[in-house]
Amino acid sequence: MAGNQRLICAAKDLVDGEKGVRFTVDRGNRPISAFVVRFAGKVYGYFNECGHVPAELDWQPGEFFDDSKLYLVCSIHGAFYAPETGRCLGGRCRGNGLKPLEVCEHEGNIYLLEAKSQS
């Protein structure tokens, strides 16, 4: 694995449709909440910001999925997002979805692939 990467967690810490792992990303010289989840066997990362209102998605730390375990849901107003794309599937979208982060799974760990624009 090449380039700048930052360890987020062990791969075993992410179970399909279960709790995500929160972490922070420096953006514009300030820390921004972010998270990773596993869905359909793959790992996805996003900034922990609803696409509609400036609020974190999880209703309890790491609780991003709805009861069906098929969608990410905003704790404030219930907007639904596709875990694999961050696209809003229901709610006051106005074309806004989740902002993705580039993450990967390698040798039993989950990494954030850091871009220069994030720091």
Task: Give your account of this protein's structure.
- With 119 residues, the protein is mainly β.
- The chain has a single domain (5-118), classed as 3-layer Sandwich (Rieske Iron-sulfur Protein), CATH 2.102.10.10.
- Helix content is 0%, strand content 39%.
- The protein has no helices and 10 strands.
- It has strands at residues 5-10, 21-27, 30-39, 42-47, 72-73, 80-81, 88-90, 100-101, 103-106, 109-113.
- The protein has a 4-stranded antiparallel sheet with strand order 2-3-4-8, with no helix packed on it. A 3-stranded antiparallel sheet has the order 1-10-9, with no helix packed on it. Strands 5-6-7 form a 3-stranded antiparallel sheet, with no helix packed on it.
- The radius of gyration is 14 Å and the shape is globular.
- The relative contact order is 0.26.
- The model has no long low-confidence stretch (mean pLDDT 90).
Give average pLDDT, whole number: 90
Uncertain segments are none
The rounded Rg comes to 14 Å
CATH domain class? Mainly Beta
Describe the secondary structure blueprint for this structure.
Elements: E1 5-10, E2 21-27, E3 30-39, E4 42-47, E5 72-73, E6 80-81, E7 88-90, E8 100-101, E9 103-106, E10 109-113
Antiparallel strand pairs: 1-10, 2-3, 3-4, 4-8, 5-6, 6-7, 9-10
